[in-house]
Amino acid sequence: MQTLSVVLLNFNGKEYLEKFLPNVIEYSHPYEVVVVDNGSTDESVEMVRSHFPSVRLIEFKQNHGFCGGYNEAIPLINSEYIVLLNTDVEVTHNWIDPVYTFLKENKEYKAAQPKILDQKNKSHFEYAGAAGGFIDHLGYPFCRGRIFQRIEEDHGQYDHSRDVFWASGSCLFIERETYLELGGLDKEFFAHMEEIDLCWRIWNKGNKVAAIPSSTVYHVGGGTLKRANPRKTYLNFRNGLSLLIKNESKRSLLWKIPIRIVLDWVAVAKFSLESGPQHGLAILRAHWYNTIHFNAVWKRRIKVNNIELPRYYRSIAWEYFVRRKKTFEKLRPD
After folding, report:
1. H or E stretch including 202?
2. pLDDT recorded at residue 51
3. Can you name the residues that pair with 210 across neighbouring β-strands?
4. What is the DSSP code (8-state) at residue 321?
5. d(Cα 247, Cα 242) in Å, to the nearest integer?
6. Contact assessment for residue 76 and residue 180, using Cβ atoms and an 8 Å cutoff
7. Residue 224 pLDDT > 90, yes or no?
């Protein structure tokens, strides 16, 4: 068995592969680099095969989505640890060893991420990961380095390793056995928040997740769906509710789901005014999905243990918009 494999899931991402794959190959040696093609219709496969012969190539005939693509590929990769790496990530020298060593030496931790900065603005954190992810008591996600649309400049304020609620799927180190045991990423999520769901299940099984900022990568972000795309709005709100239904304690769901619904209806008006009515409609469609598929989502629950989680047990919206706490440092989540 190999020790670690870096796995990039590709769908029509030839441009990103040409730009970032050489860097991944150079800085990932001696570990295996795998490109999983998710039914691309561009020339990605031919380009990888002809220009990067050292890369292992796994080809699928159809697009299984972000979650399904990895779920199909991971059983075919025989390594102790897997790195799920987006194709639009620029890695750096020695990006693997700090995280990999931490996981090997601390077996209670089953997943981790490096510090993730913005590839287009390298002095700032990246939106969907930053220095580790959290959720508030209603399930709204945020990061060390990013709350709502406020992205912090990195000046070393989060350069200490710590437990986090979730690690970013753009660069997720995870023990392969744990990934398979938990059933991998929930393919019904398709994309967005799937890593939060997976990490929540890791915590519910009695294990831990960490951020290791001594490793750094740079993420372009938005390569799958742009923020202006109503489908992104739909997936975020749909998966946000599914996340709670799947993982929250039954007692908490009785009061959290009604509050979430009310807040999401407020978001319908906000998104409709700021981004267009199609975004408000997307939120309503997200609610309808969880209404008619509630039983199906419920059946995908695992046992919820009564354990202490690194969670923010307040409302991030209240803290940010009312109390004007715009940075993670001011939240004092510990």
Report:
1. helix 194-204
2. 97
3. 112, 163
4. I
5. 9
6. no
7. no
Contact of 204 with 247, CB cutoff 8 Å? yes
**Which amino acid belongs to residue 330?**
K
Whose structure tokens read 């509050």?
259
b/e sequence 222-257, b meaning 16+ C-beta within 10 Å: ebbbeeeebbbbbbbbbbbbbbbbbbbeeeeeeebb
pTM: 0.94
Q: How far apart are CA 305 and CA 13, in angstroms?
A: 40
Q: Which two tokens stand for residue 170?
A: 């753009």
Residue 216 tokens, joined: 């750094």
Helix, strand, coil percent content, the chain, rounded in steps of 5: 40, 25, 35
Residue 23's alpha-carbon distances to 27, 87, 181, 236, in angstroms, are: 6, 11, 32, 31
Q: How far apart are CA 5 and CA 173, in angstroms?
A: 10
Fold of 2-219: Spore Coat Polysaccharide Biosynthesis Protein SpsA; Chain A (3.90.550)
Give the model's confidence band at 164: pLDDT under 50 very low, under 70 low, under 90 confident, else very high. very high
Q: Is the peptide bond before 141 cis (omega within 30 degrees of 0)?
A: no
User: Residues 79-88: what's their mean pLDDT?
Assistant: 98
Kindly tell me if the per-residue pLDDT of 334 is higher than 60: no
Tokens of 124: 């700032």
Q: Where are the domains of the chain?
A: 2-219
Chain segment 235-262, per-residue pLDDT in tens: 999 999 999 999 999 999 999 999 999 9
Containing H/E element for 246?
helix 230-247
As a whole number of angstroms, the distance between CA 98 and CA 274 comes to 42
Q: Which residues are registered as beta bridge partners of 173?
A: 83, 112
| Whole-number Å distance between alpha carbons of 185 and 193 | 10
